[in-house]
Structure formats: structure tokens, C-alpha cells
Amino acid sequence: MTYRIALSFEDGITRFIDCKVGEKVLDAAFRQGINLPMDCSDGVCGTCKCRCESGAYDLGEDYLEEALGADEAEQRQVLTCQMVPGSDCVLAVPVASSACKTGISRFDATLAGITAHADAALEVHFELEQAPVFLPGQYVNIAVPGSEQTRSYSFSSLPGDHHASFLIKHVPGGLMSGWLGRAQLGERLSMSGPLGSFYLRAVTRPLLFIAGGTGLAPFLSMLEVLAEGNECQPIHLIYGVSRDLDLVMLEALQEFRERLANFSFVTCVSDPQTRHPRQGHVTQHLAPGVLNGGAVDVYLCGPPPMVDAVRQHFKAEGVTPSSFHYEKFTANTLATGAAA
User: pTM of whole model > 0.90?
Assistant: First the structure.
């Protein structure tokens, strides 16, 4: 038996290692060629300090308080030279992956299907020889065949599956959109990742998801994981778009409502001429109850103006969520993400 440990580096790269029962994380990482920061390896210096964002573990008592104070331990700071996992874990490593002599993973994919959603988006499916391991919400860089460029897209599928899917905005004249318009099933391309600090953390309180356009993709992956785990916490999604035609994957959301007893969602369209029953921006459809008095974990993904508007709305309303994770994207790239 082994535990899977996700090492999330500060440059956005995530690597996964297997840790044996009773094995320390630092030893497991070294065994698999990843040189996590360390100096003494005896719990004395604190050089190997990281933060465990999810999972169970034991630190023992063989370390000095100068290396890890009681207040730090309460905040789930750990010393990897002492940490023995008791489950799968996610560790935030406060250095770049290059400093640990590791880097991005690359894998090949075969185009297996394309579903067009009007002129708004393409649901693209790939088969992979090696099932990609990622944290729900993360993205990969996909090399566009016939060019030397890549485009970044969030997984909309379940981690660890040989089938991977993405929700890609249709951009007239766009590099990826153009290739997909002429691509044949069975064509191969390469991907690199996983990347990004926008991913689902351990669920300990209600969740509020806010998606704009194809920013819905990472939430589909998160919902798959939550449904697989029969999550009991309330989960509410607000999904906003510019035009009626931009509302996609509604059947998938309906299916999640059937699979997750405490999942609910609303949609809204900002176009003043919409026929949709809820006109306006997502900030106009944030019912007070979904914020749970601030005792909520908020995940937000969408175009930069929408992300900024939600952040300003929270500030104006004096609401500080227990945790707040967001990611901005443009039509061609995923932009900055952050957590608070």
C-alpha cells in the first residue's frame, strides 16, 4: 500500500510521488528523484517546511520547536523530513520546481472526439496512453499541431482517467480553434503539465463555485471528484455568460444535481436582450445565503473583468470568505491565479 502525495510548487508545477506506509515524505521524494529543500533532515533546521493543504499525517515528536512552532503546526505547516502520511496528501512547497531538480511532465494524446456547442465552445476529448494525474481544477499546456505554440486548458474530466476532456472556447481565427476545425479523429498531439494553483482543497465547509464562460471547465472536474466521493457539504455554482448561446454543458450540471444531493446551480446572462430568466452579472445573483456569513470556500474562474468584479463585490459587501481561490483566463491562456 502506498499514499499519493501531490507536491505543488510555487511556480505552478505539480508533481506526484508515492509514499510507502511509514515512510517520510522527504525520503519518498528523494527516492523518486525530487530533491525537496532540506539541510539537516533531523527536524532541527526547518529548511524542509511545507504546508499540508489536505490529507492526514503524523509528525511525531522528534523535532525542535525552533524548526516548527506549535502555532505553525496548528496551521498545518509540516517538516517533510518528519512527516509520515496517513492518507493521500497535497503539499504546498514554497520553492520553484527547478530548485528541486524536477520539472513539468509531458505525455501524448490522441484526439477521440469533438462536440460543438453552437458557436460558443468545443467539448474536446482525448485518449491517453498514460492516465494523467492532476488535482481537480488544474490545467495543461497543449501543443497545437503544425505550430510551435501551446494553449492552456483546464481539465473538465476526472483525474487519473485515460480519457481526458476539455471545454475550449471557439475563437474565430484562433490557433487551436482553427486546428480543431480541420483535425481528424486519431490525430496525436502532446500535452505538458499539470499546472496551476487553482485546485480543489480538502472540503470542510460549504463550497461556492463561480464560473464565467468556459471557466466552467475546472468546476466540471471538481464536481466529478466530489460526486465520486459522495460529498455532503452544500455546493452552489453560479454560472454566468455573455450571450444565451454561451450557456453550455447544462445537461452535465443537471446530472451532477442528481448525483450530489446538496448541489445546486443557477445561470445568468449579461446580454440586456437575453431571453434567459436571469439577466445580469454573477454579482447580481449572489444570494446572501450562499455566502454563509463568510464561512464558505469560494472558487472563482473566468475572464479577468469578471474575476475583478467579484473580488470588488466581496470587498464592498465586507465579506471575507474562509478561503478564496481564483483564476483568470483569456481566450488563449490561463492567467494569474491566487488564493486567499
Answer: no
